[in-house]
Amino acid sequence: MHYWLFKTEPRGYSIDDLKRDKRTLWSGVRNYQARNMLRDEVKKGDVVIFYHSSCAVPSAVGLAEVTRESFPDETQFDSESEYFDATATKENPRWFVVEVKFKEKFTHEVSLTQMRKSPALKDFRLLTPGNRLSLFPLSKKHFETIMKLGDDHIGIS
Q1: Per-block average pLDDT, block size 10, for the chain (157 residues)?
Q2: Cα-Cα-Cα-Cα dihedral of 44, 47, 53, 56, to 10°?
Q3: Long-range contacts: 74-79, Cβ < 8 Å, 24+?
Q4: Half-sphere exposure of residue 74, counting CA atoms within 13 Å on the CB side?
Q5: How many other C-beta atoms can be found within 10 angstroms of the C-beta atom of residue 101?
Q6: Of all helices (H) and strands (E), which one includes residue 20?
Q7: Beta carbons of 98 and 34 less than 8 angstroms apart
Q8: Which residues, in sequence order, are bridge partners of residue 65?
Q9: What pLDDT does 123 receive?
Q10: What's the start-to-end Cα distance of the chain, in Å?
Q11: φ and ψ at 81, to 5 degrees?
């Protein structure tokens, strides 16, 4: 099992949306580095910290679990979709999705400001200037630190 941080803009899809829907496809990734991780490294059973970005208080807000490994993102083939890619074909898809399910909404969100103040997160990728990836792996140490900051540890090892 690995740990990941997936970023989303809450006005587009929030932790409350995932809680309501129970499961969702993590679609619309259009960065090659993030695509490669999604396609090759994210595995069924991996734990995801759900992170709200581009909002008033960017924060880690909950947990999800990967329930299905990568498969082609159908939005790349839909000319009506904002994620359409005219160069992608069914035989040679360019973009991929995974399915995640809701696990837990944090009682106390862990803000970016809190993370910046934590010595245990000094080398955390999210805090690196210029980090714009929508998903990336977390070390167990960083995962546990975020859980502790939110006082929401639910027994995941």
Answers
A1: 96 97 96 97 98 96 97 97 96 97 94 94 91 92 93 47
A2: 140
A3: 74/27, 75/27, 75/28
A4: 2
A5: 16
A6: helix 15-21
A7: no
A8: 47, 101
A9: 93
A10: 9
A11: -85, 145
pLDDT at site 129: 85
At the fourth CATH level, which superfamily is domain 3-149? ph1033 like domains (3.10.590.10)
pTM (2 d.p.): 0.91
At which residue do the structure tokens 């890619």 appear?
85
Question: Which 3 state secondary structure label does DSSP give 126?
Answer: helix
How far lies 135's CA from each of 20, 22, 77, in Å?
Answer: 22, 20, 23
Closest CA to 64 of 26, 25, 100, 37: 100
d(CA 119, CA 47): 23
Which value, in Å, is the radius of gyration of the alpha carbons in the chain? 16
